[in-house]
Design goal:
The complex is a heterotetramer of chains A (about 600), B (about 240), C (about 230) and D (about 90). With about 600 residues, chain A is mainly α. Chain A contains 18 helices and 2 strands. Chain A has a two-stranded antiparallel ribbon. Chain C is elongated and about 90 Å long. The chains are: A mainly alpha (about 600), B mainly alpha (about 240), C alpha+beta (about 230), D mainly alpha (about 90). Chains in contact: A-B, A-C, A-D, B-D. The interface between A and C is large, with 101 and 90 residues. The complex binds heme-A (2 copies), dinuclear copper ion and copper (II) ion.
């Protein structure tokens, strides 16, 4: 026997007006927290970009003084402004660290899981708003700790974002002392923040869906974010454990990764990549989900093969746990193990294929609207495909032999992470900007930014495949000391110029983003004619979202359906009740006994 | 004190649960957290297993370095705290908010929530203190996370009988022992602190009732998990 | 300026480059399919006044097709790759007649130990040379990789050979040079600030030249900084 | 969700506590007193440990009385843990 749902404990009752601090700084409103994440992680994206520019300067113009290099302390640059080898390695390591852990991951999960999940499933807020707030402040703290490592003696880590032991475990070998500890501590704190966030998302999706929001009526973005949260909850603790052991090796003199005392160097790699590969799917699945929503909207068509899209997400997430060894083919790992990891890795192409082709199927015979989000979404599909396909080369173990740890890998990284995640983020930011700030971003600037980014991005990263095939290793300070690399130096110079241009055009976006906050044109309630629950609310949505828990009447992708045509539009939101619709059974609350 | 006559399901909380998982959010959230904690201990315990498998030498014989009787007593403490925790849960289910209450015709008084939770906290605190004592003793005798401190008592004995003391792998032994037990101890400490907090903010003011005792159930889950982890640790670290 | 893998210098280059080409073709087809598809859709189905989108939730047939094809391709690719992987890196792949050298990596140099006249490692007549790798053309050679401090990686692009040298591990990698001449040995695993200059010269000799070189090294009292690439 | 027809009776917690206690004593004595071969001991000890852990999980944590949905949450990580450890051990034993 079930009784009718009473007002949720988190309903509007407690959402009385409050002061500035409670409202914007120590807010427990999932939307505000999402926006806080947005600003912080965009800042870290900028930091990562600035580091990248210095990397490119060094690779393009080795031992020529870097413009403005003189202002950096002499532990980083020579007196004449030439980057020092130590500093180069630190640049690369921190670039990777900031981009992966403090830019893209918070942008996708911190911002959009927070902002979208409750809005799209018709919940009033997260299941645990206070834990949610804590998760933001911990993430910020972690970022600041990571930043401070630039200002401590010997500077930040010098062992790549992967921190391979024993290099990272032995200060006497790496020459880094405080920086390494700060990295470990920051990662532990960040892990805590992610776990708090993720368990919030999982609980919210499972327990707080509005009446009628059945599992298979959830938008793919919510599905992706939900699966991502599961990955996060299970993967990050492993990294935390590993980071703690690394920290102890550094400060307590333990010997986990120190072969001299019987420790194992490969153990670190196993732990790191067991986290690391699920992590890279944490960095792509939410992007895939949001792109699915945007492409369906831009094509004015239901997503092609909704169910297989869901199962593809689940499949990718599951396979993601059994492929980590593909980062270790050359590490001396048991070759038989290498074979199994190769097969599982190659299989990931299958669910990915389903997604790519279903996106195309969605556009097929559509009625495409090329608004800025749609453009970036299409950019995502085309660029992620390139990145994914280059993954196939590396997955085939024999082919990985020559290209492992070369710039070919670097090309892959950026095709999936920039061409993939970041393009999806440009799309998502523009798409949900009105929901966040009540204003639209400038379309003209948006289009200019997209096309220029698309151009320079390919000019920057595509040639990396070639110099990688040519054999240029990763993380080397000066390619020109190798005779066999000298001939392709011009290509490095070319890449650097392209990279500078790429960085420059990002400021179109930055400007568009900041300018529109104040001067963007006011957003109509449903600017993209979309079906999502979030558009039933005013822009920006009030604290507590809905006055009364809304009802959901249909799936999220009912574009151009006969019913819609009957209404003279080409979309039919999930919250619209047609005369033919019956109200969903109110959320059943199991009575005593459960 | 089993309620054979009672008809309603005693093992499912009587207050409204959210849809979906069919349990209220705090409980679901705690379970998800426990799942992630499993992965955290996997990293630590897994590394221990891997390192011990690949170790260049034999591990120290059980009891050679570590004080097993003391730890066995500690294990006993933790098991007791676990049962007292679950008794506290049962007590509030039956609405016994009190501390102790005499039962006519019975010699023992009947314990309520306040009593059992206090017992749990005390056992937990005792466990941590005993562990600290153990640590200090070990370090004093020369067993550190880095292995045997040279010139120390243990180092001497180990030099005399390298097999018994697993001299070859003392470093790994120290590393894994202190890390694993240390983080377990940390978990216990967190548990005790949060229970103390609940005790003063919710239990003493009698905020819990048979209709709503979520806090007790949730902290209970955490506590039993920590106990579970210790059961594993005790066996693989001290006895094997 | 080279737009392809370096010139082949060992027997591995054959299969690896072919495999590379094969994957390039497979993925190339997939890529063209996707990109051309996207462009045509963008042009043909661009929104125009009065145009209606075709209302469909998908087609199981199509989806089965584009699930099955990649699946089959990938499994096939996996089997083929594994065949060569075992031949190249398998624990039992080292030819019995291989000529063994000791390669000891440390920050930031390569110490190569030669078996000397008795052609056996670990005997008194071994000698060690810094940053100079001398091998015999067409002679299966096995390098026994060890590391002093951190992880390094033995990388000779022309030979399509890369293998990490891990402290605490003793890893054997083998190869068979097919071209005489001078090459470069680089370190492919970040091993500290000097990673970029951890470079050695590789000389592939004819058997005679090699014997001569060995003799000359013995005469010179072996070992020591054999000059060369130790910047 | 409607109330299940089955109603669970509360287990006798004290009895479980007794089991746990006895098994702990058994473990310690097994490890030190019994003259068994090392591997046999190892197996027995692990067996006891798992058994105790199960008792705690099933009765104290009520997993015995929960729905599968909830049990799954706790079960999912275990295979992952197993995969990680086996793969990492393969380095040394092949
Ligand atoms: C968002 C992040 C992301 C994503 C999604 C991926 C996706 C994939 N990655 Fe990548 N990877 C990284 C981020 C990512 N990677 C990073 C950061 C590194 C470097 C880490 C470091 O060392 O610093 C790395 C490194 C890396 C390596 C190690 C290389 C080396 O160090 O030697 C390998 C090896 O197998 C690999 C493989 C793959 C594969 C097979 C996929 C697959 O998921 C791709 C699947 C997608 C497709 C295949 C395209 C779409 C499919 C079709 C169009 C259908 C038709 C296709 C076929 C029939 C083939 N990646
Ligand atoms: C998402 C991840 C990400 C992103 C976006 C980038 C972006 C870039 N990376 Fe990336 N890179 C990595 C992840 C990423 N990288 C990783 C993981 C590694 C491996 C590290 C390692 O080896 O350990 C790596 C390594 C790496 C190398 C290899 C170094 C080496 O091995 O020697 C190089 C070299 O060219 C490089 C260059 C660049 C360039 C030019 C960009 C450019 O695209 C940067 C363009 C600039 C921006 C994207 C910033 C723009 C943002 C703003 C303007 C902020 C807007 C602000 C508001 C709106 C308020 N990167
Ligand atoms: Cu040695 Cu890089
Ligand atoms: Cu990977």
């Amino acid at each position: 026997m079930t009784t009718v749902a009473h007002a949720r404990p988190d309903a509007h009752a407690e959402h009385a007006p409050m002061g500035f601090w409670r409202k914007y700084i120590f807010s427990t409103d999932h939307k505000i927290i999402g926006i806080q994440f947005l600003f912080v992680s965009l800042f870290f994206l900028l930091v990562g970009g600035l580091l990248a520019m210095q990397i490119r300067w060094q690779l393009g113009f080795p031992n020529t003084p870097m413009p403005g290099g003189k202002i950096l302390p002499e532990t980083y640059v020579a007196s004449n402004g030439v980057i020092l080898p130590e500093y180069y390695v630190q640049l690369v390591s921190m670039h990777g660290t900031f981009m992966v852990f403090f830019a893209i991951m918070p942008l996708l999960v911190g911002v959009y899981a927070n902002f979208l999940i409750p809005l799209k499933i018709g919940a009033h807020d997260m299941a645990f708003p206070r834990i949610n707030m804590a998760s933001f402040w911990l993430a910020l703290l972690a970022g600041l700790i990571m930043m401070t490592s630039f200002f401590v003696p010997n500077g930040p880590i010098r062992s790549g974002w992967t921190n391979y032991a024993p290099l990272a475990a032995r200060p006497d070998l790496s020459g880094v002392t405080v920086g390494q500890m700060l990295w470990c501590i920051a990662i532990v704190v960040l892990g805590l923040s992610s776990v708090m966030g993720s368990l919030n998302y999982i609980t919210t999706v499972i327990n707080h869906r509005a009446p009628g929001m059945t599992w298979f009526r959830m938008p793919l973005s919510v599905w992706a974010l939900f699966i991502t949260a599961i990955l996060g909850v299970l993967a990050l603790p492993v990294l935390q454990g590993a980071a703690i052991m690394l920290l102890f090796d550094n400060v307590l003199g333990t010997h986990f990764f120190d072969p001299v005392a019987g420790g194992q160097a490969l153990l670190w790699q196993h732990l790191f990549w067991f986290f690391g590969h699920p992590e890279v799917y944490i960095l792509i699945l939410p992007a895939m989900g949001m792109v699915s929503d945007i492409i369906a909207n831009g094509s004015r068509k239901p997503i092609f093969g909704y169910h297989s899209m869901v199962f593809a997400i689940i499949g990718i997430a599951f396979l993601g746990w059994i492929v980590w060894g593909h980062h270790m083919f050359m590490s001396g790992m048991n070759p038989t193990l290498g074979s199994t990891f190769m097969v599982s890795t190659l299989l990931i192409a299958v669910p990915s294929a389903v997604k790519v082709f279903n996106w195309m199927g969605t556009m097929w015979r559509g009625n495409l609207r090329f608004h800025v989000p749609m453009l970036n979404a299409i950019g995502f599909v085309s660029m992620f495909t390139i990145g994914g396909l280059s993954g196939i080369f590396m997955a085939a173990t024999p082919v990985d032999i020559p290209i492992h740890d070369t710039q070919f890998i670097v090309a892959h990284i950026h095709y999936v992470l920039f061409g993939g995640s970041l393009f999806a983020l440009f799309a998502a930011i523009t798409y949900w900007y009105p929901k966040m700030f009540g204003r639209m971003m400038s379309t003209g600037l948006g289009k200019a930014h997209f096309w220029l980014t698309f151009l320079f991005y390919n000019l920057t990263f595509f040639p990396m495949h070639i110099i990688g095939m040519g054999g240029q290793m990763r993380r080397i300070y000066d390619p020109t000391i190798y005779d066999f690399l000298k001939p392709q130096q011009p290509l490095n110079v070319f890449i650097s110029y392209a990279a500078f241009a790429l960085f420059a055009v990002q400021f179109l976006f930055a400007f568009n983003f900041l300018w529109s906050l104040k001067f963007g044109k006011k957003a109509p309630q449903n600017p993209w004619d979309d079906n999502g629950m979030e558009w039933s609310l005013p822009n920006p949505a009030p604290h507590g979202n809905w006055e009364r828990t809304p009802n959901v009447y249909r799936g999220p992708y009912e574009f151009s359906s006969p019913e819609a045509e009957a209404r003279g539009t080409d979309f039919l939101p999930q919250y619209v009740k047609l005369p033919t619709d019956r109200d969903p059974a109110p959320v059943p609350v199991p009575a005593a006994g459960h | 004190m089993t309620h054979a006559t009672q008809t309603i399901d005693q093992m499912r909380p009587p207050f409204p649960a959210e849809p979906g998982a069919g349990v209220y959010s705090n409980k679901l959230g705690m379970w998800v957290f426990l799942a992630s904690d499993v992965m955290f201990f996997t990293a630590l315990i897994g590394s221990y297993i891997v390192l011990r498998f690949g170790a260049p030498g034999e591990w120290a014989k059980p009891g050679a370095v570590l004080n097993v009787p003391l730890t066995a007593f500690n294990t006993f403490l933790l098991i007791c705290s676990s049962v007292s925790m679950v008794k506290a849960y049962a007590a509030i289910q039956d609405g016994k908010k009190y501390f102790l209450r005499p039962v006519p015709g019975k010699l023992l008084r009947d314990g309520g929530l306040k009593f059992w939770l206090l017992v749990t906290m005390i056992c937990g605190a005792a466990f941590v203190s005993v562990q600290l004592v153990e640590y200090f003793k070990l370090v004093h005798h020369g067993f550190t996370p880095a292995g045997f401190r040279d010139g120390s008592l243990l180092a001497g004995e180990a030099a005399a009988d390298p097999v018994k003391y697993g001299l070859a792998v003392a470093g790994l032994y120290g590393s894994s022992f202190f890390t694993m037990t240390g983080f377990h101890g940390f978990h216990v400490t967190c548990g005790v602190i949060s229970m103390t907090y609940l005790y003063f903010t919710k239990v003493l003011p009698e905020k819990y009732s048979p209709q709503d005792y979520r806090g007790i159930e949730v902290i209970g889950l955490y506590w039993h998990f920590v106990d579970l982890v210790w059961i594993i640790l005790f066996t693989i670290v001290y006895l094997i | 300026m080279r737009w392809w893998l370096p010139d082949a210098g060992s027997t591995f280059a054959g299969p690896i480059d072919t495999l590379f080409l094969a994957i390039l073709i497979i993925t190339g087809i997939a890529l063209v399919l996707v990109e051309v598809g996207l462009v045509t859709f963008v042009i043909r189905y661009r929104g125009r006044p009065g145009r209606k989108a075709f209302y469909t939730h998908g087609s199981t047939r199509a989806e089965v097709i584009w699930t099955a094809i990649p699946a089959v391709t990938m499994v096939a690719l996996g089997l083929i790759s594994n065949h060569y992987w075992v031949l190249i890196k398998g624990r039992r792949s080292v030819p019995p007649n291989a000529y063994h050298l000791g390669v000891h990596a440390k920050q930031f140099e390569w110490q190569i130990t030669y078996p000397g006249p008795d052609e056996k490692l670990g005997t008194s007549d071994d000698f060690t040379v810094r940053n100079q790798l001398h091998v015999i053309v067409n002679q299966p050679t096995a390098v026994e990789l060890t590391s002093e401090d951190v992880i390094h990686s033995f990388f000779v692009p022309e030979w399509r050979l890369k293998q990490d040298a891990v402290p605490g591990m003793h890893i054997i990698a083998w190869f068979q040079p097919t071209k005489t001449g001078e090459f470069e040995l680089g370190c492919a695993e970040l091993c500290g600030m000097g990673h970029y200059r951890m470079r050695a010269h590789v000389f592939v000799h004819t058997p005679e030249d090699y014997k001569a070189w060995v003799a000359q090294q013995i005469a010179a009292g072996g070992g020591g900084g054999g000059g060369g690439g130790s910047e | 969700m409607t109330t299940p027809t089955t109603t669970h009776k509360r287990p006798n917690y004290m009895l479980i506590w007794l089991y746990l206690f006895i098994m702990t004593v058994a473990e310690v004595s097994l490890a030190f007193e019994l003259p068994l071969s090392r591997n046999v001991k190892l197996l027995l000890l692990l067996f006891l440990a798992v058994w105790k852990a199960l008792l705690v999980a099933l009765f104290f944590m009520h997993l015995k009385f929960e729905r599968w949905r909830l049990r799954l949450i706790f079960i999912i990580p275990l295979p992952l843990a197993a995969i990680l450890v086996t793969a990492a051990i393969m380095e040394k034993v092949f």
